[in-house]
Write a structure and sequence with these properties.
306 residues; TIM Barrel; eight-stranded parallel barrel
Length: 306
């Protein structure tokens, strides 16, 4: 069973905002999330991830507008920085000078709502370059601002740097679902990080959809490629014999699969509608108060069968 309460474990994601999630819906999501007690939102300079240069930083602009309109000062915003744009280029802006500019910028934009800065999409493999970035971040970490990681291509290079700095329990966002998991790839960092799972539904897979979800279509993911997994999951649910309530959709299955992982206690929710958030919070309480360990073990076998 889970230890954290929902407000600590559930993080609202914004990667699809201003892309498949329209602006007005984003505000509705924030209203609902806040009313449910949610206080953690994840964003990045390159969100939405739609490869349109004109939309660079659009997600954070919507978030900032909502915060300012409502006078919110108790939200914890996780800001991922480092990408030049949202075109998935390998270029980065992780020099100490640029990080300093980002720190000043987000302190100004978010004020008391700045909850964390995270290095994002870093393809570097040179420890000295990485150390130069981490050392400037260390100054803010020592002053109380949490520092995290996301999208690290060379975990082994970061492992040595974190050892040198003596950092522990560093928040690390990683993709983790029944189709694909980055957890094993981050093995060099396991002793130093606190994983946060995202991508719980595999990009928007649906258990019983007649057509691909908007998220799947936007990302260019072929749902048909995952038909065998979906069939196994449907059969598994039809044969459900546990006393605990049965999961009803891919989001609930994804939450179970992530949150019952022994190393993962936090997740980023890719909700596209307010009712999705309501469902996620209710389901989290179910996972927290019931014992789904056996169901999780069965899911592990289903996921590994591909």
């Amino acid at each position: 069973m889970l230890k954290l309460v929902a407000a600590q474990a559930m993080i609202l994601g914004t990667a699809m905002w201003a892309w498949t999630v329209p602006r007005a819906r984003c505000f509705e999501l924030l209203d609902t999330f806040y009313a449910l007690g949610g206080r953690r939102v994840d964003t990045a300079t390159n969100y939405p991830i739609n490869r349109r240069a004109a939309d660079f930083r659009a997600a954070e602009a919507i978030l900032c507008e909502w915060l300012n309109a409502h006078g919110i000062e108790d939200m914890e915003v996780l800001v991922k920085i480092g990408s030049v744009n949202n075109l998935r280029t390998s270029d980065h802006l992780l020099t100490p000078g640029f990080l300093q500019l980002c720190y000043q910028e987000y302190n100004s934009l978010l004020g008391p709502n700045l909850g964390m800065l995270m290095i994002h999409w870093d393809n570097r493999d040179q420890p000295e370059e990485i150390m130069a970035s981490l050392e400037i971040l260390a100054e803010w970490r020592e002053s109380g601002l949490p520092i995290g990681l996301s999208g690290i291509r060379h975990p082994e290079a970061y492992a040595g740097c974190l050892d040198r700095l003596g950092w522990e329990e560093v928040p690390l966002q990683l993709k983790h679902n029944l189709i694909y998991s980055d957890y094993a790839r981050y093995a060099p960092l396991h002793a130093r990080v606190d994983p946060i799972a995202y991508g719980l539904t595999g990009g928007g897979l649906k258990l019983h959809a007649q057509a691909p979800s908007e998220s799947l279509q936007a990302r260019g993911i072929e749902a048909a490629a995952h038909t065998p997994l979906l069939e196994r999951l449907r059969n598994w649910l039809q044969q459900w014999h546990h006393s605990e309530p049965v999961p009803k959709n891919m989001n609930q299955i994804g939450m179970l699969y992530a949150l019952y992982h022994p190393a993962i206690s936090q997740v980023v929710l890719g909700a596209s509608r307010p009712d999705h958030l309501v469902d996620s919070f209710r389901w989290y309480e179910m996972l927290r108060t019931q014992d789904y360990t056996t169901a999780y073990q069965q899911l592990q076998k289903l996921a590994c069968a591909d």
